[in-house]
Amino acid sequence: MLYRELANRLQALISDEVYRPGTALPGVRRLSAQHKVSVSTAVNACQELERRGLLEARPRSGYFVRPPQAKRKPPRVRTVSKSPRPVTGQERVLQLIQSANDRNMVNLGTAIPAPDFLPMHAIEKAFRQVWREQRRRCIGYEFPPGAPELRTHIARHLAGLQCNVSPDQVLITNSCQESIAIALKQITQPGDIVVLESPTYYGLLQVVESLGLKALEIPTDPQEGISLGALELALESWPIAACVLVPSFSNPLGTCLSDECKQTLLGLLEKFNVPLVEDDIYGELPFAGPRPRPIKSWDKKGLVYYCSSSSKTLAAGLRVGWMVPGKNMPRAEYLQFINTVCVNTPSQLAMVQILEKSRYERMMRSARSAHAASVARMVDTVTQLFPTDTRLSRPTGGFVLWAELPGKVNTAELIEPALAAGVSFAPGSLFSASGKFSNCMRLNCAVQWDARVERGLKTLAKLVGKSGKK
Ligand SMILES: Cc1ncc(COP(=O)(O)O)c(C=O)c1O
């Protein structure tokens, strides 16, 4: 889509301050001549930037660059319980997850990108082609380790990220969550201690709960990432069986560890011989700059179990994930087999088509700028609507925003009235094994922005305001 390309180019010029906040963009005729596109493409590009919250249309004056909103303070780092604890009560998440099945719900609760953020056309074409050309294969099982062509593509993709992995070392799974469960089954026994960021993605806590492991939560700075000092102390103090981390654009904070921190972290784990389960599901989605390197790319000793999926980049409904399960590939294949027998065949083959067409990089570029804009818009709107002392994360990739609310707000108490009003969010306590973060909430920004979303956010702001005054 030409207009999106032009919108992306103009967005880059806005972020480089070639067009400064408050100033007018050249008129659409001028833009069309400058960029050698039709006037209607220029109009569409400006409208797209309006939707992304970067431009405002002023009647009879044209398009103006919107001033950035005042930045809110970032959330505070929490001290968390100093000893490992079993994870309990994660079933609470079901109510939230099930709310996403309701197509009328304004989904700010689950981290699922709306169709606008996904390459719908390419997916449709891939499925049609696969059905046309490989019908017989589609209706059969594709047993572990998964479709060979897909494993080759994943290995190639990983090679581009400086991970030296052959197709034989790649296992196709149903999801990143399944990859993580298989990795932890390979390296832990019930009762073992596993290190997690705090706050961390609730799905990781659920896997820890289901395997009867204990969680040791490490304080995590919303901008710097996991505290390496606290991690080192934990490694010295406890017999830790594994670390499960999201080093590139964590969920819910959106933090990306620097390359230097990633290498220091790996050095620490090597020193204590502790395996890392690396969840890289958001790694493809930086807002700017190059795609970050996974920790796996520095792993010379085979300590890193790499896990990812297509859920955030292509479509969650594909249910295709992958992992590099380390030394014991046959055990991982067997665990995948007894879990679900195998992975959906048409989805695996469709994904091969999408990767083969080499448009994948372009799709990712478009997704990245759309997510950057959607997060910026959410920050703007929450800043306008929520109490003034609300603190907000500053994600540098992915598409979720974490808000720390002032006063005595307990967001777990707001979920029922919010769902009843048709809007979901994720209560903060879901992201901790020790019930911390009860005054926080996570918002999914990858929504199709319309009046319903604005109304939903107004409803949340009202609920927060009322609860904070109690
Ligand atoms: C950090 C993280 N890991 C894993 C998952 C689960 O992804 P999948 O659908 O591939 O299981 C999610 C989904 O929200 C996530 O945010």
TrEMBL record:
<comment type="similarity">
    <text>In the C-terminal section; belongs to the class-I pyridoxal-phosphate-dependent aminotransferase family.</text>
</comment>
<dbReference type="InterPro" id="IPR015421">
    <property type="entry name" value="PyrdxlP-dep_Trfase_major"/>
</dbReference>
<dbReference type="InterPro" id="IPR051446">
    <property type="entry name" value="HTH_trans_reg/aminotransferase"/>
</dbReference>
<keyword id="KW-0805">Transcription regulation</keyword>
<keyword id="KW-0808">Transferase</keyword>
<dbReference type="InterPro" id="IPR036388">
    <property type="entry name" value="WH-like_DNA-bd_sf"/>
</dbReference>
<feature type="domain" description="HTH gntR-type">
    <location>
        <begin position="1"/>
        <end position="68"/>
    </location>
</feature>
<dbReference type="InterPro" id="IPR015424">
    <property type="entry name" value="PyrdxlP-dep_Trfase"/>
</dbReference>
<dbReference type="Pfam" id="PF00155">
    <property type="entry name" value="Aminotran_1_2"/>
</dbReference>
<keyword id="KW-0032">Aminotransferase</keyword>
<protein>
    <submittedName>
        <fullName>PLP-dependent aminotransferase family protein</fullName>
    </submittedName>
</protein>
<dbReference type="GO" id="GO:0008483">
    <property type="term" value="F:transaminase activity"/>
</dbReference>
<dbReference type="InterPro" id="IPR000524">
    <property type="entry name" value="Tscrpt_reg_HTH_GntR"/>
</dbReference>
<dbReference type="InterPro" id="IPR015422">
    <property type="entry name" value="PyrdxlP-dep_Trfase_small"/>
</dbReference>
<dbReference type="InterPro" id="IPR036390">
    <property type="entry name" value="WH_DNA-bd_sf"/>
</dbReference>
<dbReference type="Pfam" id="PF00392">
    <property type="entry name" value="GntR"/>
</dbReference>
<dbReference type="InterPro" id="IPR004839">
    <property type="entry name" value="Aminotransferase_I/II_large"/>
</dbReference>
<keyword id="KW-0663">Pyridoxal phosphate</keyword>
<keyword id="KW-0804">Transcription</keyword>
<keyword id="KW-0238">DNA-binding</keyword>
<feature type="region of interest" description="Disordered">
    <location>
        <begin position="64"/>
        <end position="85"/>
    </location>
</feature>
